[in-house]
Amino acid sequence: MNSAMAGVIGFVGLDQLSLELAALLLRAGYKVQAFEVQNLLVNEFLKLGGIECSSLREAAKGVSALIVLISHKDQIHDVIFGHDGALEGLQKDAVIILYSTILPSHIRTLEKNLKENGLATSVVDTYVYKATSENLNGKVVVVSSGMPDAISKAYPILSAMSEKLYIFEGEIGVGSKIKLVTELLEGIHLIAAVEAISLGVKAGIHPWIIYDIISNAAGNSWVFKNFIPQLLSGNVKYHFLNSFIQKLGIVLDMAKLLTFPLPLLASAHQQLVLGSSLGTGDDNTPLGQVWDQVFGVNTTDAANAERYSPEELATQITSQSKAVRKVGFIGLGAMGFGMATHLVKSNFCVLGYDVYKPTLTRFESAGGLIRSSPADISKGNLRTL
Amino acid sequence: MNSAMAGVIGFVGLDQLSLELAALLLRAGYKVQAFEVQNLLVNEFLKLGGIECSSLREAAKGVSALIVLISHKDQIHDVIFGHDGALEGLQKDAVIILYSTILPSHIRTLEKNLKENGLATSVVDTYVYKATSENLNGKVVVVSSGMPDAISKAYPILSAMSEKLYIFEGEIGVGSKIKLVTELLEGIHLIAAVEAISLGVKAGIHPWIIYDIISNAAGNSWVFKNFIPQLLSGNVKYHFLNSFIQKLGIVLDMAKLLTFPLPLLASAHQQLVLGSSLGTGDDNTPLGQVWDQVFGVNTTDAANAERYSPEELATQITSQSKAVRKVGFIGLGAMGFGMATHLVKSNFCVLGYDVYKPTLTRFESAGGLIRSSPADISKGNLRTL
Fold first, then answer.
1. Which PROSITE patterns does the annotation name (chains A, B) (predicted)?
2. CA A351 remoteness from chain centre
3. How far is the alpha carbon of A356 from chain B, nearest alpha carbon, in Å?
4. Contact B193/A185, CB-based, under 8 Å?
5. What is the distance in angstroms between the Cα of B33 and the nearest Cα belonging to chain A?
6. What ipTM was assigned to the predicted interfaces of this complex?
7. What is the distance, to the nearest Å, from the Cα of residue A303 to the centroid of all Cα atoms in its chain?
8. Residue A133 is part of a domain; what is its CATH number?
9. Separation in Å, CA of B167 to nearest CA in chain A
């Protein structure tokens, strides 16, 4: 299919996920063009084969669909209706695909404003995400909703840019509603994960060991599994809080309009605000330090500790599992050393750490592999067990 | 290995998971015996090859390890030190393996009491669970801790009754601490799941569709994925709340002893108490009805609704995935019908539901498979997508 047949798609704003949408659309034969101010994202977009536009109007010109990634309602209004805005470039029969965290009521206002301007242009709202389940792992899922005419126009594009597609026909805002419900869960799970890890550290347990055990137990969540390693290794920064607070504020706003109580989300939101209030002024402070201040613990040091109390030995044995032949030992006390060397003799690959260096030397000469910190052991297990 | 060599293991109290431990121990050549009052569990235990005991003393007699499943500290004290209690039957070198939700401080008291009674008997505490991750799915994991002599005695038994084993040597209570941290997460995730589904229903979205989308997105948790279907189908009953409230109370107690704040768990705990306060006096009331009362929605009816508003059509298309050939449509409006029949022609297996019966007849004659409710479609997809 050549691009003239498939048509042109415009992007207003880009993020990592919209780059994937662009790649899927290009593969389906669409031409894609974008207006975005961040150079890093624009460069990736150009590498894919996209075309950079110098204005909103230009990005909207000649497209059959305009994919808008802007969350603030006033900004969306300006982007579309403002001077040199998208509407000035838009064809009368184009469809606007919203890909943002935005209140359903604001989407309906936008739809109404378009109609009042005498425009046939119709709107579809979407929730776009990467699937997390075993079967669909990493595939792009699009949940979309809109009036029948809008769905009808958007369908070929939605279909091309997704690997699994849900369509709610007959009412706009359903995509956004489901996105807001998911974000409610993400927000609560984030604060729950931080509360849990901090409690564990306060109780004297190494955070990587808590992570290793719980990410495989009934206490697990997608956020726990994916966020905690980022937090413990210092990769998440303070500024992450503010975008989260904003998103959850929109969920609370939606519930308020529905006169619906969200006591647990409200509590999680307040914890995020508390975290945010403890900022040092540096947006790039590792987020773990903020939570350490909230809870009065030192998760950061515990996660990176070279030193480990021999009284808090942790050993981990894998038995009766034919598939697993790699075992980590944290602490090589009398029992631990005996078991570890026994496993070495049984042809296991055994990683060990102990604060007492001569023990490590002895362990190495018995055939064990030594590691420089408990975190290294735990991480090793995560990859292999 | 014959049972005389491997030894005898006693159980005080049984549950589904301890039946699995018993099966693993039997397979390793141990003889197992139990004292339990519930006939159903005893019968399953006997079927495995276990021996029923008529008293605590008898269950403890001749064992190398006594596995105790009792959560209340006073009960544990009575079980061990009471008249005709376990201690009267216990050999001096036996080890007690605690398999309960119990405060670390109570475990230390128990250990002290045993020592003060001049007994060599030592204690190991454990957190036992079925692994939830892809690699270890369903395997029995044991997280254990205790002083070196206790670990040394318990090691062969712990090793035989687990498929993955963690040992924390040098301090008792670590197993329980990790269990309490997991339960904190489970409790919060439970209330979060209920809050999310109720908000979605209030916003007009079918609960099975919310479940289908979110259980595959970043908002997912183990509790959401496994608990919500039970809740929506009415399988979880009111009495479930009280055991949860008790367990989370122990987590809050542990945090209090550590002077550690748990604002989010405290909020979740209060919601559980609110739910509990709305009981009708019938322990077997479906739990969903309790939450419906809390949130002023009707999730129960929505989940089972035969009728579905045609204005809230939901269609689901799977595109570009070669593996998936089964698609469900809820609502067969103008667009939905066209897409559904198009997919039928492309050799997809297409399930459809619509409130308007003539549409269904038309759909069936076009080669679609009709279903009697939206829930049937969603459930069908869960199994196949």
1. 3_HYDROXYISOBUT_DH
2. 32
3. 16
4. yes
5. 23
6. 0.80
7. 22
8. 3.40.50.720
9. 5
**How many Å from the N-terminal Cα to the C-terminal Cα in chain A?**
46
Which residues 311-370 of chain B have a CB within 8 Å of chain A? 311-321, 323-324, 331, 333-336, 339
Give a yes or no: residue B129 inside a domain.
yes
The boundaries of the domain holding residue B75 are: 3-168
Counting one residue from chain A and one from chain B, the pairs whose CB atoms sit within 8 A come to 344
B166 in contact with A at a CB cutoff of 8 Å?
A: yes
Phi and psi at B235, nearest 5°, equal -80, -20
Cβ–Cβ gap B331/A169 under 8 Å:
yes
B17 with B149, same domain: the answer is: yes
Is A264–B178 a contact, with Cβ atoms under 8 angstroms apart? no
d(CA B93, CA B152): 11
CA angle A210, A215, A217 (to 5 degrees): 95
Closest residue of chain B to A162, computed from CA coordinates: B319
A154/A332 Cα distance (integer angstroms): 62
